Amino acid sequence: MKTYETVIGLEVHVELATKSKIFCGCTTEFGGDPNTHCCPVCTGMPGTLPVLNKKVVEFAMAAGLATGCSITRSCKFDRKNYLYPDLPKAYQVSQLYLPICRDGGIEIETSSGKKRIGIHEIHMEEDAGKLIHDDWDDCTLVDYNRCGVPLIEIVSDPDMRSAEEVIAYLEKLKLILQYLGVSDCKMQEGSLRADINLSIREAGAPEFGTRTEMKNMNSFKAIARAIEGETKRQIEVLEDGGKVIQETRRWDDNKDTSFAMRSKEDAQDYRYFPEPDLAPIEISEEWLAEIKAREPELRDAKKARYTEEFEIPEYDADIITASKKLADIFEAAAAICHKPKEVSNWLMVETMRLLKEKVMEPEEITFAPENLARLIEMVASNAINRTVAKTVFEAVFNENADPEAYVKEKGLGIVNDESALRKAVEDIIAANPQSVEDYRGGKDKAIGFLVGQTMKAMKGKADPGMINSLLKELL
């Protein structure tokens, strides 16, 4: 039986985190009632003229620099012509001939080791609207709110050979973009979408096979399943003596299969020509240097610094830096309480537990780092014990509660009144003669039970160390 190799390239569409659209002042905010975030410019009314949003260019440059691309100093926009309901003006402003970034790449790591994935280009363009198919009324509605939202399209080289490599590439790309602040990359909101170009060939063959494209995939799990499903389909076509047709296909994740949509268009089908309403973009040395100077510390550098500067385990640093939100919380809280390992522990254990329970992403965390730092300081100063601290942290996590105010309001502070503690310990000793006998008989572990019973009697609001000392004294 023949052995086949999968060849994959991606076109990743990223909505940029500008406040206004690429060629007009309409908001880019997600949601809103249909057709309320648009104007004559982004709906393509006759006689309107676009004005380029400078921030879009700067975000595109930042993404290019962070992915090792060269920046095209003189670039321009082109019109990509096609008639489709989601683009009312019947063309999309994009970049074909002179994209702003070219010839870059990023390094990924999989179970097979490290590998460089080339980036052919990054270009700027405007997003299209959104079609809503109403099965009940058997019609299609269109929402133009998304029209004109700025995009960069990151086009990889066909360097990936498996779903594992694709997901590693997307995860690395997503983190770079989030750390740069150029996009929130919320796949559930369409801020990051991927088109999968996939072909197969016999292992060792020099030529690529015929590729198909699956468009607008917005879930890592669906992307992995689509790659595996389309690879299997193409192999079956070839094994049955057929030919793979170059076409655009739609992946149905519920049915675990893909369906043909239309034949795959080439550049000539879109009749590209230079956009006459926008001047060419000239990028000076000073402007480029300014963007380079703004580049933040990215994930790989941050991870190395955490293990060295904060002396936290590499495993902790890997988990924390895998989310920009967690990394920001870690650094801010550690700067306040000066206990980085404690901050790391609270993020790695209690924060991760609550995120899993509530099926949340780290980016959805709303508590302030200051409140986590205060909680850690309260434990360190013996104002509350760790058992109570877990309860308080849930209030911090859920409501961004001020831990000091919450402890005071709920009466959760540690009881340091020795006479009250002594009375409680005496009562526990009297109520548990067997454990007392076991302890006096040499079973040191029996004291742990007595400590637990005393803590229970004190509703968790006592210092276990003080209870332990009193028990040993009285016994």
Ordered list of secondary-structure elements with their pairings:
Elements: E1 4-15, H1 54-66, E2 70-71, E3 74-75, E4 78-81, E5 91-94, E6 101-110, E7 113-126, E8 130-134, E9 139-143, E10 150-156, H2 163-180, E11 192-202, E12 212-217, H3 220-239, E13 247-252, E14 257-263, E15 273-274, E16 281-282, H4 285-294, H5 299-309, H6 314-321, H7 324-337, H8 340-357, H9 369-380, H10 386-399, H11 403-410, H12 418-431, H13 433-440, H14 446-457, H15 464-474
Which characteristics define this entry?
475 residues, alpha+beta, Arc Repressor Mutant, subunit A, 3 domains, three-stranded antiparallel β-sheet, 15 helices, protein biosynthesis
| Whole-number mean pLDDT | 91
**Class by alpha and beta content:** alpha+beta
How does the overall form come out from the CA principal axes?
elongated
Per DSSP, what share of the residues sits in E-state strands of 2 or more residues?
15-25%
Extract low-pLDDT stretches: none
Question: How many domain regions?
Answer: 3
How many strand units?
Answer: 16
What composes the largest sheet? 9 strands, mixed
Tally of individual helices? 15
Work out the radius of gyration.
29 Å
Strand order of the largest sheet: 2-6-7-10-1-11-12-13-14
Q: Please bin the fraction of helical residues.
A: 40-55%
Query: What distance separates the N and C termini?
Result: 78 Å
